[in-house]
Amino acid sequence: MSEDPYAEKVWVKNYDEGVPSSIDYPEMNVYEFLDNSAKEFGSRTAIWFLKNKISYKKLKDLTDRLATALVNLGAKKGDVIAIMIPNFPQFIISYYGIIKAGCIATACSVLHTEHELAYQLNDAGAEIILAWDNQVDKINKIKDRTRLRQIIITNVLDYAPMAPRNRPEIAGTLQFINLINNTKPDPPKFNINEL
Fold this sequence. Notes:
Elements: H1 31-41, E1 45-49, E2 52-55, H2 56-72, E3 80-84, H3 89-100, E4 104-107, H4 114-124, E5 128-132, H5 136-142, E6 150-154, E7 174-175, H6 176-181
Parallel strand pairs: 3-4, 3-5, 5-6, 6-7
Antiparallel strand pairs: 1-2
């Protein structure tokens, strides 16, 4: 074995001058980048969606609430949770909320066919899905062929200006925004690389 760890990484020789062949990353949970940004830039805009601005501080609060809600629903460290939401703030909230709960996120395309969605959910072992509400029919058609036990839905307007409050529940699902609004933030604490 070569002493140079980059000897076999032939692409490195094509890097522009001054571009390092490796970067030292801090040993921390990914969500700590968001938490640190909330401390340092709390009032600054993290997300701007449909003329609604969400600050870093608010984003941290939303992700803490979702993480807590997921744990309250029975999610355990290492569980896989699916996200089937397009480019809405809810995707970002879901991703950070899932990893703050100690879980693993698998992103599913809203363009998946029923067969593709069932395959991905089964392959990943997802038991919870956070999904765009216009995907509910597709999810319900394949639910019995998967391990899904919980469907959490969101609407494109949930984080728009003048968003409706307390969306009505749809049988067999939970409303994302209601779940977050009705949960006090208390996400679990754990260390990286902890089993």
